[in-house]
From TrEMBL:
Its main location: cytoplasm. The active site is at 135 (proton donor/acceptor), 163 (schiff-base intermediate with substrate). It catalyses: L-aspartate 4-semialdehyde + pyruvate = (2S,4S)-4-hydroxy-2,3,4,5-tetrahydrodipicolinate + H2O + H(+). This is 4-hydroxy-tetrahydrodipicolinate synthase. It comes from Candidatus Salinicoccus stercoripullorum.
């Protein structure tokens, strides 16, 4: 099964003012990130507002992005649901539509123990035809998957990776425990951990800033993985640090959509109850992105 790697933007879902999905805008975003050299696309993740979509909308968005990607890069589809049966059904749909991997968040809200979480992933993986990527996001779920549990899950046939949106110590432990597993990829979900994670064995990064400065994130990846130029990677990363922090100042995906609009790309509103970015924030991120662009022009 396909193992994810590299720079993978977690696509937002452009919306019109009435909350209707802007499919024309979504196609533009797909072309924007692919033309910038990314290695894959995540559709239907947290940044894509999957939790505020109906089951049919989730399917429509997954199918649409896969069709518009047209095999230019692999597509990972967010398919996690509260019910195991629903996760399996959506994963099968994604596989039939052409997704290479399914991103599956662990069960949350009704907290369950490690054995039940392990059984959940085992059941989903055994029922799926594409690789299952664990989504560990304790800030959102309130449940931390410990490195030892992740290692156990990684040994399940059909589990091919993890988006680890957790701190650096946790990520380093996951890398250490799973480094002997040739069928498993560790990808960080935090932009500010791209440099340290790639430097110690992670193989990629899934994130939201990737939509705003995809060429720079791809360059950061190349500097570490292909060119072994850690000093230049540190320099580039230092330029990007203000943007990493800025997108977290207000509620995602409103901040990401504000950044896209500052670039002349479609963003639109977020679905209720998610608020849009404030006017002050829109000006702030526009200035930040312009500064990053000016820095690029000066060096080139």
């Amino acid at each position: 099964m396909f193992k994810p790697y590299g720079v993978i933007p977690a696509l937002p879902t452009p919306m019109k003012e009435n909350g209707v999905i802007d499919y024309e805008g979504l196609e533009k975003l797909v072309d924007h990130v692919i033309d910038s050299g990314v290695h894959g696309i995540l559709v239907g993740g947290s940044n894509g507002e999957y939790s505020l979509m109906s089951p049919e909308e989730r399917k429509e968005v997954i199918k649409f992005v896969i069709e518009k990607t047209d095999d230019r890069v692999p597509v990972m589809a967010g398919t996690g649901c509260h019910r195991t049966e629903d996760t399996i059904a959506l994963t099968k749909f994604a596989a039939e539509a052409g997704a290479k991997n399914a991103l599956v968040i662990n069960p949350y809200y009704m907290a369950i123990g490690d054995e039940a979480i392990y059984d959940y992933y085992k059941t989903v993986a055994e029922s799926s035809d594409i690789g299952i990527v664990i989504y560990n996001y304790p800030d959102a779920t309130g449940i931390q998957l410990e490195p030892e549990l992740i290692d156990r899950i990684s040994r399940i046939d059909g589990v091919t990776g993890i988006k680890n949106t957790a701190d650096g110590i946790h990520t380093s432990k996951v890398i250490a425990l799973t480094q002997d597993n040739p069928d498993f990829s560790v990808l960080t979900g935090f932009e500010d951990l791209i440099v340290p994670s790639l430097s110690i064995g992670a193989v990629g990064a899934i994130g939201v800033v990737h939509n705003l400065v995809p060429e720079k994130i791809v360059k950061l990846y190349d500097l570490i993985v292909k060119e072994n130029d850690i000093q230049e990677a540190i320099r580039l990363n230092s330029e990007l640090l203000p943007l990493y922090s800025m997108v977290e100042e207000e509620v995602i995906p409103g901040t990401v959509k504000a950044g896209l609009e500052a670039l002349g790309l479609p963003g639109g509103s977020s679905r209720s109850p998610l608020p849009p970015a404030s006017e002050d924030f829109k000006e702030k991120i526009k200035s930040c992105l312009q500064k990053l662009e000016n820095n690029t022009n000066v060096r080139s």
